[in-house]
Structures are given as structure tokens and as C-alpha cells.
Amino acid sequence: MYFRMWQRLACLFCLAVLSTSPACAQKSQEIAQGPVRVVPIRMAKAVVSLGLDGRLHADRISDWIPYRDRAVHNMESMSVAHDTFEGVDDGTGHLMPGERSDYIDNCGVGSGRWYLGDGYEPGWRYNDMPYTQDARGKTANHVAFSFYCEFGSQHDFRNCIFTTEDFPLDAAGANAEINGGSYPGIVFSYGQLAASKPHYYYSDIDLTGSGLSFQMPNGGQGGVLELMGDADDVAGAFTLVGQHMLWGIKSGNPTPQQSAYQWDDDNPPDFEFTDDISFGSELYSYEYGLCPDPWSISIGFYYSGSGNQTETLCPQTVSVNLGKVTRGDVTSLASDDGNVMTVCKFIVPSQTSPFVRMTESYTTTKSYPTAIELEVKAKMANAGSFKIRGFLHDYSNQSDTKVMGDSSINQSFSRFSGMAPGQLSHYVGYGGAMQSRVEIQQVGPSTVTSPCATFELINLEVTG
Questions:
Q1: Structural domains in the chain?
Q2: Which positions ≥6 away from 427 have C-beta within 8 Å?
Q3: Tens digit of pLDDT for each residue in 174-188?
Q4: Whole-angstrom Cα distance, residue 254 to residue 273?
């Protein structure tokens, strides 16, 4: 199911500070102490892309999933993928900011972390994300981060996190990498957040069994992208509140050393990065000679055991059971590349029947998946009232299970997705066979008698 997570983005307490490239960070450097642990209420899969307005938009592309906090995490079984959070056990098995004894340099601040002073409310922040060699191509099922939020959140505090394959140091490259090289991420929703001291918060979140995870880069430099703020879904507004705490990589940390540079969307906060020196570059140096040096967004990605890996499956065959293909073929469904497949209404057996029904076949290498997601990007060619839905084939009882609920589809390309429920190995047949079914049904008036639907991609994301 596709949702636009925000419309026109609003911001409060936005600071415009002129700088040169690469500049020093924009505010005074301060230490916050006494962190308070907060737990998200819900979470969802999200994607980020460059809109027609030239700005970076984040979209929630799955239903909200309630977050169920675990009382004790088995931290000993987890491996580090990237760690600028530096967490220690809080006595209950949860991670909290601290200074680990196996990380050799001790900064002498305990659970304290750096931030850029009161009143600093940036938009997107983008940092390089070096990762351990063993984490290459794997998925992280645990994340921890810290932030400072002096004004609180009146509606719903959200933190959106994405990973990218690389980290360009020019604005055009950074925006393009995020638009085309970012992996699906997660938006965490907290509800209202009190504007009470010390304003310093952290979360450690176990994603095991949720179907959500963070993809680690597969050989690139790696990057991590974050945006936080207060979402008002009724008004369609997103107000910038909060800033990410800052920390670094010490000796003894298995994470390779990172660069000194970070993109901060703050000059002004307009949801894009710029390096135009006439206005002031948004690429900053965080090299201060303060412990630890250099700084970056305080975040940690971890994985259990050998770490699950996700593969993207493109259809090998497609059968159009209802409708008539007027453009494209099975190769059109492989990726988001402008090569589309169009299917129009032809013969409909009954008034309650969909006018498009397509069955896609795939082959997976995961005999025992831990998550399966059907993802579709499509639009209508004609105006009217239509719904799209999706199914996965259950080989245990030779039936199809609805995984993507009925969603409205219009004349703008949108992404729709759904997670498979139940025993996931039942969706894998002999030799790794998998099958999906996508339908479109007319549920109201249409401007034409034979409406058409256009498909950009139909993929399966299989983790295991």
C-alpha cells in the first residue's frame, strides 16, 4: 500500500548560516548528558527519491507495523556492521550510549554525546557509513541511535533512516545517489514527545521477525541518511524538530575509519543538498580535534549470527489471465527504468471480476525466508475509480494469499507493497519456485470503456 508520508514540508527554527566548502559545522559544540530511552510505537518501510521539485521526498510504502519491545536482547550474539553509537548494556540487555572498554580511546564523557547547541533544526543529514568486511551485502536487524529534541513533538515524532551504496562529496552526486542508489529504509513513529529536559534521547530497536531491516552496502563506500521531525497527518505537514547526536569511531571499534565530511541540509533547510558557494555549501567538516575525532551521526547497525541477506527477484515469466497487453513484456517488469508494460481491459467474466489479472513466476535461493515482500510500481492510464491488490502463491495448499490489500490507484506512478504472513517457507516451491498475482479492479466510474494500467515493476524482495 502506498502512502505519501508528507506533502509540503514545513519547518520551524530553521537557521541559515553561510559557509564555504568544506565548512566547519554550523554551531557551537556542546555535550548532553543523562540520555532517556524512548521506544517507537510503530514502524514502516519507506523509500526516498528526488521529486520533480528537486527536493528529497520520503514515502511510506507499507502499512504501519506495531513495535513490540523486547525486555532483554542477546547482545552477545550480535555483530557490528557500523557503529558510531557505541552502546553499552544498561543492565537490562538494552543498549544505551556509553564508552565501551574494548574501544581503546576513552573520551571521559560516559553516556554523554555531542550536539550543535539549542535551536539547531536541520533537514536531511547524510554521512558516509564505513562497514565491517563481514557485513558486506548483509541486512542489519538491529539499530540504535541518539538525538536531541528540545521542542518536543506535538503530533507524531518520526525518524526516517536510509542506507546508500556510496557517499558522493558533490551535491549533484549526493542527490543522485540518494535518488537512485538508496536502499529502502524505515520510518519510526513515536507519537508525542515531551519538551522536557534533558532533551537527550536514544533508541535501540530490535527488528527481528518484523520483516524490516537495513541493507548494508555491497562493496561501495556506504552512506546513511536521516530525517527527523513532527508529522501531522491530518494537516499533511512535517515540521523539522530535533537533531542527531554526534559521535565517532575509536580505536578498537571494528568499524573502519570514516571521512570528516557530512552533508547537513541547513542552509537553508529545504530538503536538498547544495554546494553552491554563493549561497553556502552544505558539506561540512566535523574534524574538531575533540574526542572522538571526526564526528558523524550517532547510529549503530548490527546483525545477528551470519546476518540475513535480501535478494530482489524479477519475474521470469508473466501470464496475463485477464486483460490484453498493448505494450511491453516480462522484461518491462524487472526494474524502475522507464521500460513499462501496459495492460488494457479486454474480456471480463463478471461485473465483480478484476479487468487485469497477471501471474508472475520467480526463482529464489532462499528455501527458508525470514521475510518476503511483494513490490509493485504502477499507475492508471485513464481517470476513474480503481483498486490494485496482490497475492503470493502458497505451495502447501495450492492457494493464493493476499499480501497487498486493496489500494486506490490513479494516473500517477505509485509504489504498492505487502509483506507475506504466516509460514514463509510455504511460499517457496520445488527448486525455489515462487509466484505472485497482481489484479486491478474497477470500483466506480471510468472515463473510458476499456481502461488501461501501466506497470513499471513487479518484484519480490526475499530475505533469508
A1: 3-304 (no CATH), 310-463 (2.60.120.260)
A2: 369, 372, 392, 393, 394, 395, 401, 420, 434
A3: 988 998 778 889 999
A4: 30
Q: Per-residue pLDDT tens for 357-406?
A: 999 999 887 877 888 999 999 999 999 999 999 999 999 899 999 999 99
Q: Which helix (H) or strand (E) holds 78?
A: strand 78-83
pLDDT in tens, 100-139: 999 988 999 999 999 999 889 999 999 999 999 989 988 8
Nearest to 453 by CA among 280, 289, 287, 325: 325
Which helix (H) or strand (E) segment holds residue 379: the answer is strand 371-380
Name the nearest CA neighbour of 141 among 196, 236, 238, 215.
Answer: 215
Give the whole-angstrom CA distance, residue 119 versus residue 116: 9
Q: How far is CA 319 from CA 325, 361, 436, in A?
A: 10, 9, 11
- Quickly state the pLDDT bin for 150 (edges 50, 70, 90): confident
pTM assigned to the model: 0.68
Distance CA(74)–CA(141), nearest Å, equals 13
Among candidates 246, 291, 287, which has minimal Cα distance to 106? 291
190 neighbors 127 (Cβ within 8 angstroms) = no
Cα 253 to chain centroid, rounded: 25
Alpha helices in 137-264 (DSSP H): 171-181
Report yes or no: 263 and 176 within 8 Å, Cβ to Cβ. no
In angstroms, the CA 215 to CA 131 distance is: 11
- CA–CA separation, 246 and 229 (whole Å): 18
- 2-24 residue pLDDT tens: 222 322 222 222 222 222 233 34
Here the cell at position 55 is 527536493
Q: Are 163 and 217 in contact (CB under 8 A)?
A: yes
Q: Which three cell numbers stand for residue 48?
A: 526516498
